[in-house]
Amino acid sequence: MAAANTLWSEEDFSCPICLDVFSSPVSTPCGHNFCRTCITKFWDEQVQYKCPVCNKLFDTRPDLQVNTLLSEMVNRFGTSVRVKEKPCVEPADVPCVCTGTQLKAAVKSCLVCFTSYCQTHLEPHQRVARLQKHRLVEPMDRLEERMCKKHDRLLELFCKTEQVCVCQFCTETDHKSHPVVPLKEEYEVKTAQLGKIEADVQQMIQERQKNIQEIKDTVKRSKADADREIADGLQVLTALMRCIEKCQDDLNQMVKERLKSTEKQAEGLIKELEREIEDLTNRSSELKQLSHTKDHLHFLQTFISLKDHPPTRDWTTVEVRPPSYVGILRRSLDQLEETLNMQMKKLPDGELKRVQQYEVDVTLDPDTAHSCLILSEDGKQVHDGGVEKKLLDNPKRFMKQLYVFTRRSFSSGRFYFEVQVKDKTAWCLGLARESIKREGEIIETPETGYWTLYYDDDGLVFNDDPAVRLPLRAELQKVGVFVNYDEGVVSFYDVEARVHIYSATGCTFSEPLYPILSPCLYNFEGINSAPLIISPVNQTD
Hints:
Layout: H1 2-5, E1 25-27, E2 33-35, H2 36-44, E3 49-50, E4 57-58, E5 65-66, H3 68-77, E6 108-110, E7 115-117, H4 119-127, H5 129-132, E8 136-137, E9 157-159, E10 164-166, E11 180-182, H6 183-291, H7 296-306, H8 328-356, E12 373-375, E13 381-384, E14 404-405, E15 414-420, E16 427-433, E17 450-456, E18 459-462, E19 468-470, E20 478-484, E21 489-494, E22 499-504, E23 513-518, E24 532-535
Antiparallel strand pairs: 1-2, 1-5, 3-4, 6-7, 6-8, 9-10, 9-11, 12-13, 13-24, 14-23, 15-20, 15-24, 16-17, 16-23, 17-18, 18-19, 20-21, 21-22
Helix pairs in contact: 6-7, 6-8
């Protein structure tokens, strides 16, 4: 048997796939032997079932049979025919098909076997005639993914029309008329694009991070505003409560003092009446006693002294009038109103400062201005010229009302602007929706898309249905307009007096809003000829 052993070579005991000693050897129908694990794994990764040695194709996956004889011989002689191993390779290299605990770096990949081999296991492909016909390439991982599923050839080209990787045979069939380039060339193009895509992604990330920060800043500002509002409200309400308590005390004191005065007067009169009653009672007793005397001399002498009544007051002119409390409550309420007005004057000052921080720079849009209106070169002033100019038709232009929009519109957030109305006897200003009517009769109400103040000789009103008449303590010089688009609020302020004029709340905004101005008509005597002026915010006002 020892002599027989010398007739066997290492190749006879090596698996053609892993090139190591057989482990559970099995035979294919074409007569070739493999480790059960190697051939099973090989076929699991293939579309077609073929022999890795002779490339014979099988219609169905063969039923592998254990090669009993070869298994016994491997068990007997396997320890003497193991292939020597080389040191393991770096993890980044393409691994060889080696089995065991140590993996080796491949030096070539076989496009027929779909396997990569180290120098040791590549030796059969360089020695065995049938393996020498296999195509060897530089080491590649995931070989099965690099092969054309249709032609079983290496994907070496890129079709620019369909943006897919193709093999050489594909360019002669399905992609015959399509422009193709080597993978490396397209790789360089796509790498350059990848850099731009990555830059775009980074920019999108930064934009979203900026959005997050803006949201956080908004929440922070909202909290600060809420804290200030609570503090201001507490200050005002505390002052009002103190005033109410004082008014109540003053009212009680004044009423009690008046009641006490009446009671004192009544008490004095009652005492005086009681004294008179006592005197009269005594006189009545004396008269009764005198009426019983029979002494003529005594009667006549005494009668003279008793015939006159005791001295008394004429009570027909004396009365106790109940105290009048009329005006006491009114004076208390007047005092309360005065305190409230004082607190209200303090409150808007801080409120106005807060909304002024949302100032925006707006200029008037000549394309929207009525043909009678004259705009300054900087777009900050407008007045009625009195004569219609011949202008090109423009669907954005107001055709009947003396209105003009600003160039800039707003679709979110908060914004504030100021308009000087000094020396004018009539004007209108505020906000309007982009879609409002530009011709024909216009009714300015929130329902039709207008949130405006109007002023003339009859006073100041907020245009609504019905109109809201507003108090005007003094002539307005400058009007501030604040909008919180998201919360649906439009507020107007008297900038010089630093007081709140009016707020429209619960508004529904679903499209861009434009600041809108109207200087109104002027007559030829020059009345109301002054312009409306969009003014910068002066925080020291």
